[in-house]
Amino acid sequence: MTTATIHPHEAAHFGALAADWWDPHGSSAMLHRLNPVRLRYIREQLDAHWHVDARERHPLAGKRALDVGCGAGLLAEPLARLGAAVTGVDAAPENIAAAKDHAAGQGLAIAYHAGELSALPPATFDLVTSMEVVEHVADPAAFIGELATRLASGGLMILSTPNRTTLSKLLLVEAAERIGAVPRGTHDWDRFLKPAELETLLDDAGLEVVDRTGLAPSPARGFKLGGSEALNYLIAARRKK
Q1: Is 126 annotated as a binding residue?
Q2: Reading across the β-sheet that carries 151-162, which strands appear in turn?
Q3: Would 144 disulfide with which of 74, 109, 113, 201, CB 3.0-4.6 Å?
Q4: Is 131 annotated as a binding residue?
């Protein structure tokens, strides 16, 4: 697939935040709060998919993982610690530079690439993740199609994205950007995907959804899995049998 999926304005916006990516109190603070919940979901799904004991420290040992829209490596690094051989791809070269520097400081060998996913050398991966990315690409159908081509037989794909609802417009776009919880210009509500729309794109790409859950705010824990999908949701999918 050669269709360009990078939106230049989006790449520039997130590239400008690269230096601040690993600061849990900086412009990416919301991602730091989301990441533990995402990781919990990923761990639950990979344990179920590959029948892994939940006590296993390295459930991805011997497996290849691809994180698309990896930013500065906030998810790629934990995947590497779970045992995976990780490749990270991001539209912004600034993010990839920050990711490489941080991984080197942590002693982690992660293969990072800047640019289009389709420009990667031909390869498939056991686990493909893409968190809060599909709403930022120029062509969601082409993007999901390219993700699908990278998923190995028997592999697992996990995505997260905001839902296009009145509540998400009020809280994720208008309120969050107004109070500085996320940088201004981060979200374009019109490009959010409803769950049924994303499931259609996955189906068209030859994938079947095996799980879907809400990602909602929690007064006690910041965010929690389950419950309402009105703001954000996660989806796990595999190749159709």
Answers
A1: no
A2: 111-114, 85-90, 64-68, 125-131, 151-162, 232-239, 207-218, 222-225
A3: 201
A4: yes
